[in-house]
Write a structure and sequence with these properties.
alpha+beta; four-stranded antiparallel β-sheet; 10 helices
Length: 273
């Protein structure tokens, strides 16, 4: 019976594309007092867990454990109702917040459903690839000092013949133990001043001391290369998430423009913009 239920759940889930859309063909899998637990609720809870957690367990074990958690929840839910907690003012406030969130999520699913299609993701991928085409990555070793005087002294040691890595090892700063090796980086993963200096350097050269909010720095540029461009398949989830967020932001802004919004201070007095 358990195997049949789990197989049915997987069929329903694959048919609709998400756990939230499984109401069609749903079945009751447990009843606690008058609280019914639906198969869709079990699958929603399963797919809300981390992917690595789902992958680490046998599907039937995961189903049983999830159903048991929902049964426990139903037991305490029934006990809370019997205790009259539904009418507690603090509980009512929390329920209102939860209702708003659930309805908000449902609104966006309804309004944005079907808008994130292959054509949209293709267009966003083309824009991503175009933006990445001009970017470069840099591999450098790095020394950081507390002040300009120390940076000048370090540069003098390197100019006199000491290797950049040996000087880095002799100092104490994050990364000194690996000779200051930063690996490959670009503007998305490194301090802007370091990227700017690296971009202006020739491979094999050592920079003059320069300053950032983190202190004084020296760079030894080891290599430069075009930034790798991820494939359309690799970018699918990120492109879809970014598209969803952009569309959600636009929808909220449209609602904001059409809505009368009044704000009040903590004392309840109206605030004037």
């Amino acid at each position: 019976m358990r195997t049949a239920l789990f197989a049915l759940a997987l069929i329903l889930h694959s048919a609709v594309g998400s756990a939230q859309g499984m109401e069609s063909g749903d079945v009751i899998v447990a009843r606690v007092w008058d609280v019914e637990i639906m198969l869709s609720e079990v699958m929603t809870a399963i797919y809300a867990t981390r992917p690595e957690e789902r992958a680490s367990q046998h599907p039937e074990d995961l189903y049983d454990q999830t159903l048991e958690r929902l049964v426990e929840g139903a037991l305490t839910y029934h006990a809370a109702r019997e205790a009259g907690l539904r009418e507690d003012p603090s509980v009512q406030r929390r329920l209102r917040l939860i209702e708003r969130q659930v309805l908000s999520d449902a609104y966006f699913r309804q309004q944005l459903s079907g808008q994130i299609d292959a054509a949209l993701l293709d267009a966003r991928y083309v824009a991503y690839a175009a933006a990445m085409a001009g970017r470069r990555q840099y591999h450098a070793h790095h020394i950081r000092t507390a002040n300009e005087t120390a940076a000048i002294e370090v540069k003098a040691r390197i100019d006199s013949g000491e290797s950049f890595a040996d000087v880095a090892h002799s100092l104490s700063y994050p990364g000194s133990s690996r000779g200051g090796d930063l690996g490959f980086f670009d503007e998305n993963s490194m301090v802007p001043e370091i990227v700017s200096v690296a971009a202006a350097m020739a491979v094999g050269s050592v920079s003059e001391p320069f300053h950032s909010q983190y202190g004084w720095h020296l760079l030894s540029l080891e290599a430069a290369r075009p930034a790798p461009i991820a494939s359309r398949e690799e970018m699918h989830d990120q492109l879809a998430e970014e598209a969803w967020q952009d569309m959600r932001t636009a929808a909220i802004e449209s609602l904001r423009q059409a809505a009368p919004i009044a704000r009040f201070g903590r004392n309840g007095e109206p605030l004037v913009d």
